[in-house]
Write a structure and sequence with these properties.
452 residues, alpha/beta, D-Maltodextrin-Binding Protein, domain 2, 2 domains, seven-stranded mixed β-sheet, five-stranded mixed β-sheet, 15% strand, globular, signal, ABC transporter substrate-binding protein, SBP
């Protein structure tokens, strides 16, 4: 079932816009003068402008957690306030519908994504350079760790996305579980190492009155790889790096220590505990996760009448990697190449990247994509569930640029879970599991190459 919410946004770009911008040699006027020129072209804020025909933009999310409330407050309404003549409708496909299905049936006008490669493979991503120049978009305002990663997706210098926010990780912990077992909370303002979390987890992993408490949920190799900016595939050749990079041995050796904690693997051989185990079941004491993955759902849980005693601490890392945090996940906008309303979509994105709207993001617990330390002072102030939490710890630790991603990495990352399965369920040693996993990765990549 599709969720559809309509909001009035920006005016249809008619013949006036096309004629005004048809000269390839012209350039947009940056700054306030440029904004005024755009307003004049669009008939926004001018007494003489005629009403424009309404335009509906279809919006799609693939990858990031974006609640309906966040969609309304952070994307739809800000654009509505600037351009009141467009309808924005969110597309939410049924479970099991793939991104390929969406873009071959009802392609959106623009999307919010993490990894642009699926859209690049579909030849669906528009090169945004002409719009950046045309509308005087100031790229220098974007945080380099975000924008430099985005630039790596352009094979010939294309810019196929604009960052929306930086999705950073923090350490969440259930204070009630710490209190139950008489263990001291993680310290304020100080990064813990994963080695320290392992020891804390062992103290907190217990079974009491039939309830299995999990001390530390590491979230698997796909999370730990981001501590070390570690690719799964060689970014150029696509060859598996599971045997080539010793960091992979380190990652899975650490995970094995977690799995070997008495009581960690459940009676039904469960060894992976997700967000609901922390939030709803409240049986996980420590969980590292990105802000977008947790804050919105925690607030929705609070609104539903469910609250518990939790807090957050700085993002941890391996001991020899401190004070680094981990890769900052980039949530970015991509405009669909076949959209009939690319101009409108870009202007909407440009509005969301203003300081005013990025401050709104910060107030709603999303780290801004633009360089402006003042915005972070308001971080989380509009989210009731964060009241009294140590939100200043969000910014402790050095955020890292995401590793360069091969075009098929998203297609084979699930094999990392199979490596863990082999270790936990089959009793394989780390080296044997990595060899088997590496063979699977290379075989899967070769199959994908053959299909193209």
């Amino acid at each position: 079932m599709k969720y559809r919410a309509s909001f009035v946004l920006l005016p249809f770009l008619g013949s006036l816009l096309l004629s005004a911008c048809s000269d390839k040699g012209s350039s947009a006027i940056p700054g306030p003068a440029g904004d005024a020129a755009v307003s004049a072209v669009h008939g926004v804020g001018t007494a003489a402008s005629a009403p424009r025909e309404p335009v509906k933009l279809y919006f799609y999310v693939n990858g990031p957690t974006l609640t309906d409330t966040e969609f309304n407050q952070l994307i739809a309404k800000p654009i509505t306030n600037k351009y009141p003549h467009i309808t924005l409708e969110r597309i939410q496909p049924k479970t099991g519908v793939t991104i390929e299905d969406v873009f071959t049936t009802t392609p959106p006008d623009f999307s919010l994504i993490i990894n642009p490669h699926p859209l690049i493979r579909l030849n669906a991503a528009e090169d945004l350079r002409p719009y950046i120049q045309k509308y005087g978009f100031d790229e220098s305002r974007l945080k380099p760790i975000l924008y430099d990663h985005i630039k790596e997706f352009g094979k010939s210098g294309e810019i196929i996305a604009i960052p929306f926010n930086s999705n950073q990780a923090v350490l969440y912990y259930n204070k009630d579980i710490f209190d139950k077992f008489g263990v001291e909370y993680p310290p304020a303002g100080k990064q813990l190492s994963y080695e320290q979390l392992l020891e804390l987890g062992r103290k907190l992993t217990r079974t009491v009155n039939g309830t299995n408490y999990i001390g530390f949920e590491p979230n698997g190799a796909s999370d730990l790889m981001r501590l070390l900016q570690l690719p799964l595939l060689d970014p150029d050749s696509g060859k598996s790096l599971l045997l080539e990079r010793p960091e992979w041995t380190r990652v899975f050796s650490f995970l094995k220590k977690v799995y070997d904690t008495p009581g960690f693997v459940g009676a039904n051989r469960t060894y992976s505990y997700g967000r609901d185990a922390f939030m709803k079941d409240q049986t996980v004491a420590l969980r590292v996760a990105n802000l977008a993955n947790m804050v919105g759902p925690l607030e929705e849980l609070r609104q539903g009448g469910v609250e518990f005693n939790w807090d957050l601490a700085p993002s941890p890392n391996f001991e020899d990697q401190l004070p680094k945090a981990r890769e900052a996940q980039v949530h970015s906008f991509v405009i669909t190449r076949t959209s009939k309303h690319k101009e409108e979509a870009f202007l909407g994105i440009k509005e969301i990247l203003t300081d005013e709207v990025q401050r709104l993001l910060a107030r709603n617990a999303r780290v801004p994509a633009v360089i402006n330390p003042q915005l972070e002072k308001d971080f989380g102030s509009d989210i009731p569930v964060l009241k009294g939490k140590r939100i200043e710890d969000t910014f402790v630790g050095q955020q890292l640029k995401n590793h360069r991603i091969h075009e098929y990495e998203d297609k084979v990352t699930s094999i990392l879970t199979e490596v863990s399965d082999d270790i936990v369920l089959n009793g394989a040693d780390v080296n044997s599991a990595l060899r088997k996993g590496s063979e699977k990765v290379d075989k899967a990549v070769q199959t994908l190459k053959n299909l193209n």
